[in-house]
């Protein structure tokens, strides 16, 4: 499960145009997790 702080970071970096793949690598989570989180809001 993604914690609140990680979600805040993801939201910030995605708004800045960061790549989902790069974020997944940097945060140590899978791209699928990021995509699921985006779909669920």
Protein architecture, described:
By secondary structure, the chain is mainly α. The protein has one domain (4-40). The protein has three helices and no strands. The radius of gyration is 9 Å and the shape is globular. The mean pLDDT is 89.
Q: What distinguishing features does this structure have?
A:
mainly alpha, 41 residues, globular
Write the SSE topology:
Blueprint lengths: L3 H12 L4 H8 L3 H10 L1
Helix pairs in contact: 2-3
Characterize this entry briefly.
The chain is an all-alpha fold and about 40 residues long.
Counting structural domains, the number is: 1
Class from helix and strand fractions: mainly alpha
Instruction: List unreliable stretches of 5+ residues.
Output: none
Number of helices: 3
Mean pLDDT: 89
**Strand fraction:** under 5%
Main sheet properties: none
Gross geometry: globular
Q: Would you count the extended β strands for me?
A: 0
Query: Rg to the nearest angstrom?
Result: 9 Å
Q: What series of H and E elements makes up the topology? A: HHH
Question: In whole angstroms, how far apart are the ends?
Answer: 14 Å
Helix content: over 70%
């Amino acid at each position: 499960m993604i914690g609140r702080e990680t979600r805040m970071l993801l939201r910030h970096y995605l708004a800045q145009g960061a790549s989902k793949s790069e974020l997944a690598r940097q945060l140590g989570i899978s791209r699928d997790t990021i995509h699921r989180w985006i779909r669920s809001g």
